[in-house]
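Hey, can you fold this?
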Amino acid sequence: MASVLLVYYVEILVGLLGVVGWGLFAAALVPLLGIGLNWKGATTEGAIAASVVALVLNLALAVAVTFYGFSLASGAAVEALTLIIAMIVLIVVSFVTSSASRQRIADDIRRVIES
């Protein structure tokens, strides 16, 4: 029975994996690389929180779009929403967490951030 369902939904699953893969790639890495490496206030906790939020939200929205017909206003991509939310989470969690985690950055990484 499971194989019949797999064959029936294989097209949908391939598309879903593609959307989740690229959306997750962008939503998880853009905040970390774009903000995390360029802003001295970014913390490890903020980066982890942003990655987790991007993973969960991207997967949930991809399932909602594919199986439940969910869509955003004016046809905006849900991956873009996930990307924006992950950036906000990185910034907010970095502000909330202590500055002690900013001091634990290795010297070689600190030189990359400051250059």
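Oh, and this one too while you're at it.
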Amino acid sequence: MLDKLKKSYWFKSGSLTLLNRISITLFGLLNFFFLIRILSPNDFGVWVIFLSITGLSESIRNAFIYNPLLRYLNSEDEKNHKHIISASLSLNLFAAFIISIVFISLAYTVNYFFEAPALKDMLLISIISVFGFTLFAHFTFLQQANLRFGGTVVSTFFQKLVLLAFILYAFISGYEPTLFELALYFSIGYVISSFLAYWFARRESTFTFSFDKVWIGRLFHYGKYTLGTNISTMLNKNTKEWFLGGMIGPASVAVFSPAVKVTNLFEIPLAAIASVFYPEMINRVRKEGISAAKYLYERSVAIIMVAILPCVILIFFFAEPIVLIIAGPKYPEAVPVLQVMVLYGIFEPFQRQFGVTLNAIGKAHINFYFIIVSSAVGILITWLSIKYYGIMGAAYGTILTYGLGAAFIQYILYKQIDVRTLNIFKFSAQVIQQGWHMVMKTIRNKSLKDG
């Protein structure tokens, strides 16, 4: 039974994607741990704002390129694959060109929004990372579309390692790095990882140099919905830092950051399960119909809830020592922020799997309209909350936005594919029961063996 499990798609792909998410989150935590002790609160706040801008640009490509590429490579005949791959790369390069123009524009206007003069040179040098990420993303997307995740893990690891190595050098030697140097090493990491990603994806990298307008159009029109959805979602997430930095100052972003960094831990199971369920859901829906999407949505949300809820409880009650460990004694104001923000873990599984499900059943436009509206409402709530409650307002606004969103999501999915919220709780109880029986069986077998 165990050997069969180890050979299964779910075990292998799930283990590798989980390992990749753990690796990304661990690198992020380590960077945070050392940088918050090296940089001043103001400089650290500027660094967080920089990461939110570059993260938004990366997320745009993930939505605009990855989702349509994955969908069509898994649903079209193999004779069309080289045209799909070439069209995808063309769109990726076009997106990189547009993002570079946006970065240049931001570099010369950012001081109107933040008191952060260092951001200008940081954004200009990060254009290197924009094109490095273009190739890195293209080749890792190809691997994932073909259900191969090992190369993604390795190339991502080295991409993150470059920046961490520089930060560790600065921390150990006592060197005071500039924000420009941090942005430079951040960019170099993507250049190195793009070569590694190509090495692992070279077998899948068949393409044609012909300009196939038909496939570019098909990928574009499918990707525009997931693009709009992703931009809205990321804007909703990042506006907290931007509003704090603009309305209060970059140092307030540093106070808010420990809560964000801890709650980002929830991204490990969320992203791992979503990346595994999405290609599987596309195949199951094609073979079995809409009922497969209903089952997989309810099941995946239940699994994530069971994994996350104990973490939410622990973080809530141990927020003070957690902040002290990861951020040091300079940020006691971050404790109540974390206690409120951790509740995000209860609502996010619904929203994450909502998008995955609608994309898989070919109704990305519904997700698009929902996210546009909910993000606009969320941004307004965040702005008002910060205006009246300061740093704590950013946390209050986040939880209120996600709570309202989860309620509307369940209503929409009930209308579309007959999802029942009660089934999610039933599945959760089953997962807990199965896990308990498995643990007890393991203990009994061990006792018998020892006896």
